[in-house]
Amino acid sequence: MGVLEISSFSSLPSIWSNNIWRSHFPIKGNQGRVLAMASTVDAEHMTKSKQRLTGDQFIRPHLRKLSPYQPILPFEVLSTRLGRKPEDIIKLDANENPYGPPPEVLEVLGSMKFPYVYPDPESRRLREALAEDSGLEAEYILAGCGADELIDLIMRCVLEPGDKIVDCPPTFTMYEFDAAVNGADVIKVPRKPDFSLNLELIMDAVEKEKPKCIFLTSPNNPDGSIINDEDILKILDLPVLVVLDEAYIEFSGIESKMKWVKKHENLIVLRTFSKRAGLAGLRVGYGAFPSSIIQYIWRAKQPYNVSVAAELAACAALQNSTYLEKVKDALVQERGRLYELLKSVPFLNPYPSHSNFILCEVTSGMDAKKLKEDLAKMGVMIRHYDKKELKGYVRISVGMPEHTNILMNCLRSLS
Ligand SMILES: Cc1ncc(COP(=O)(O)O)c(C=O)c1O
């Protein structure tokens, strides 16, 4: 594809501009007649044809089929709607880290010297700090506006419209969403009832459907299960780009696979500051890429994707590894307590988790959506699922011990 440069539009013959019009906006029946007359520069008909033009005609066809965006309620709106102060809402619905970042983050944000200067497009300070944190050299690391941005960026670099990805639901829904935005088809290989990957079906799908990439999440959102090394290695042997999303790896006690990108040309590993460092609101994620791939991601990336504030905050967070470790330990310990308590609730069946959330099947005739709504009225937010694979399930993020206590009181009141 090239770029057509037109220096003087007024010099184009009217028939040509009409043809361009037709090729962009395929026209039917009567509409065609109106446009043909418009080319004779009849002012009145020109106005009529303009009235027939609607904005959605400019939108790429595959995007016109996208389901409407379902925004989450901003915290302040939620607080007004529930009639509670934000600090009185127990927010266990988005796997955020309730401890927030180390105190150094707020200090550094409060004393920012150059907010009026554009950020470093290469996030050099942050990538050096991440190299030290991960043991992988900075040249393999690229930072993004959350792991979310990197998922989309990878797809934009890899997928042509009509290409395929493999998705293993139930899992993080952004893979499916971004595939649709990028015009790709999604081959779904559902997980087994215990939420482990169905390796045989994945191999089959790769052979038959020839997808460009597969998205794997470990620990998986929403159930918290992990993928063992043996299975990851088997998938890495397939002719497919493997994007391993480790957004919650810190809570699993398992070492990140970031360093593996030096050995595997078809592996990308994604991580984030949203969970480990309580920085979800500042949007910082990062990825480890093989050299043969990262050069293209650099070319396609928006230059200023990581803001000055985000980079400063992430660097300050990494400087206080003692705090990050302490908060992680507190959440892992609380996960164990919450799991035991949830087991005692007569209408919940919790799944063991390696992450900072617990998936529960809602049993005994209790409705999952109603449970979520009843808890919301009491100021406790949890996530409920109504999609095919997870109908009748809820996911509860691990909070502070006092959050668990309030949640349990509310659940007991509903028993
Ligand atoms: C599996 C998974 N990957 C990535 C993300 C997004 O991370 P970020 O906040 O860095 O965009 C999430 C967020 O919940 C997630 O659950």
Structure description:
With 415 residues, this protein is α/β, with parallel strands linked by helices. Helices cover 42% and strands 13% of the residues. The strands form 3 sheets. A 7-stranded mixed beta sheet has the order 2-8-7-6-5-3-4, sandwiched between helices. A 4-stranded antiparallel beta sheet has the order 9-10-13-12, with helices on one face. Strands 1-11 form a two-stranded parallel sheet. Strand 5 (213-217), helix 11 and strand 6 form a beta-alpha-beta unit. The protein is globular and about 65 Å long. Residues 6-41 have low confidence and may be disordered.
- Enumerate how many helices there are, as a single number: 17
Ions, cofactors and other ligands present here are: pyridoxal-5'-phosphate
First-to-last CA distance: 63 Å
Strand arrangement, major sheet: 2-8-7-6-5-3-4
H-E order: HHHHHEHHEHEHEHEHEEHEHHHEEHEEEH
Give Rg in angstroms: 25 Å
- Sheet with the most strands? 7 strands, mixed
* Average pLDDT, all residues: 90
The total of beta strands comes to: 13
Low-confidence stretches: 6-41
